[in-house]
Amino acid sequence: MGARTDADETAIVLDAVRYPSLLRLVPDGTAFEDNPVGVLWRYRIDLTSGVVDETPVGEDGIELPRINEQWTGRPYRYLYATEQPTPW
């Protein structure tokens, strides 16, 4: 969804939707409801040590996350996404 360096440029901060397992798609669409819910996670990659910290940002299922493109590469506060309600 978005990535940037932290304030002192020693790490990359990356936000992305993460799934507990690979999506299962069947050509006739019958397994769509069985797909896992995607949740927003933040990853912090330390450029010196290579250590990756991962933190869930929320619990709600979301899809198609976006930020205002004017904030690309910079810290942002808001995102736009569609909610993926559960249970089906």
In short:
The chain is mainly β and 88 residues long.
Describe the fold and architecture.
- Belongs to the carotenoid oxygenase family.
- Keywords: Iron, Metal-binding.
- The chain has strands at residues 2-5, 11-18, 39-46, 52-66, 80-83.
- With 88 residues, the chain is mostly beta strands.
- The protein has one domain (2-69).
- A 5-stranded antiparallel beta sheet has the order 1-2-3-4-5, with no helix packed on it.
- A hairpin with a 5-residue loop joins strand 3 and strand 4 (52-66).
Q: Distance between the terminal alpha carbons, to the nearest Å?
A: 25 Å
Strand order of the largest sheet: 1-2-3-4-5
Give the H and E element order. EEEEE
* Overall tally of structural domains: 1
Mean pLDDT: 86
* Strand-pairing-aware structural class: mainly beta
Shape: elongated
Give the number of helices. Answer: 0
Q: What fraction of the residues are assigned to beta strands by DSSP?
A: 35-45%
